[in-house]
Amino acid sequence: MKSDLFSSDHIVTPAAAPGMTVQNAKSIKYAVQGEMLARQGAMVAYRGDLQFERKGQGVGGMLKRAVTGEGLPLMTVRGQGEAWFAHEAQNCFIVGVEPGDVFTVNGRNVLCFDATLSYEIKTVKGAGISGGGLFNSVFTGHGSLGLICEGNPLVIPVSPQHPVFVDTDAVVGWTAHLRTSLHRSQSIGSMIRGGSGEAVQLKLEGEGHVVVRPSEATPQKPQQH
Length: 225
Fold this sequence. Notes:
The protein is mainly β.
């Protein structure tokens, strides 16, 4: 059979080392030797001896999800083999988290991550329930985090002299040492997303980087539990 489909651009090759790599712009390959975690339903193919289990949230985690709506249903992947992960053909990226790092990311942008990373849902400071209830997933530890994003993300440096204001529906995540607060701007409300009245942005101050996707939030599909 002859076709460009079977060219080296598309044929996958065995992993050279354990862990995750970007297979192509829309998928991540994970060579599993032990255990890793991924968002439920994100596995599109695998080979080898792998088992997939829904990861329980525990009572505290279920309460947080009920209050925050931050639902990040996870599954544990165990065994020896290779698995490919993707979600709605969104672009894929890998972030390496080092000891002492703190990376805050929106749960909708998490695809998969090493079991050596710790994960916790936290309220975004300055944006509690009274400010619309912004909650993100905070990752610490040492390992790799696979992210998805609609389009190519914008990575904007933040400095003490130059704070950055981002649309709360477009923010993907940000690095440690950034302070967050809500910024309300009535003067530009009618010019943002065709709205009217008061516009709200997330203000980030300090030293670091903020990641923004080049699209607004789309309605979330109901999760299967």
